[in-house]
Amino acid sequence: MMILVIGGSGSGKSSYAEEVVCSIFEEDMKKYYVATMQIFDEEGRKKVERHRKLRSGKGFLTIEQPRSIGRSIEKMDAGRKTVLLECISNLTANEMFAGETPKLEMQVVQSVISGLEQLRKNTTNLVVVSNNVFEDGIIYDRTIMDYIHAMGEINQRLAAMADQVVEVVVGIPVVMKQ
Question: What is the distance between the alpha carbons of residues 66 and 45, in angstroms, rounded to a whole number?
C-alpha cells in the first residue's frame, strides 16, 4: 500500500504521516524512516532535531538518503517493511541541484519517480510526505520555476501511484483519494 501525505510548510503533515505509519505497522515488519534532508545550516539542524524528537520511541530505523532514493532499499533488511519517506521536496532539490549546473526538470522527475517505484515494489507499506507547490502565486527565476514544475509533476505522478492521498491543512487530514 502507498499513501501520499501532502501539505504546506508547518501544516502537520509529518506528524500525521508518522501516525499513519504507526497505525498500519504490524509486529512482523521493520519500520524505516528514510530522511532526504541535507543539513546546510542551523535552521536545518533544528528541523532535523525536531523530527527526531517526534519519532523518538516509535521504533523507526533511520536511513539518510538525500539522493538516489531507490538505493535506500539496499540499506534495509529483507522481509516485510513499512517505510516513511520524508520528504519529496528535499529529494527533488537534492537531485536537481547536486552538480555544478541544475539537472533538467524531466530528468529529475524521472529519477525521483523511478526511485519511488523501486521503493514501492520492495516495501509492504510506503508513506510518502510531500509539499504543496504553486501556492504563493509568485513567479521566480527560471531555475526555481523548473524546480516548482518538477515538484508539481512528481506530486501528480505520486498521487496517481498512491492508493490513498491525504492533504493535511492546519493539522487536519483531508482525504483526497481513498
Answer: 15
**Amino acid in position 83:** V
CB atoms within 10 A of CB 159: 15
Give me Rg for the CA atoms of the chain: 15
**How does pLDDT run across 10-38, given as a tens digit for each residue?**
899 999 999 999 999 888 999 999 999 88
Residue identified by cell 493539522 is 171
Which residues, in sequence order, are CB contacts of 70 under 8 Å at separation 6+? 114, 115, 116, 117, 118, 119
Residue 10 sits in a domain whose CATH number is: 3.40.50.300
Cell of 72: 535506500
| pLDDT at residue 78 tops 80 | yes
Per DSSP, helices labelled H in the chain are 13-24, 42-55, 88-96, 105-121, 142-161
131 — phi, psi (to 5°)?
-110, 145
> Amino acid identity, residue 16?
Y
Count structural domains, the chain: 1
pLDDT tens for each residue of 51-60: 778 778 889 9
Helix (H, G, I), strand (E, B) or coil at 172: strand
- Which residue segment(s) compose the domain that 50 sits in? 2-177
DSSP 8-state code for residue 38 = P
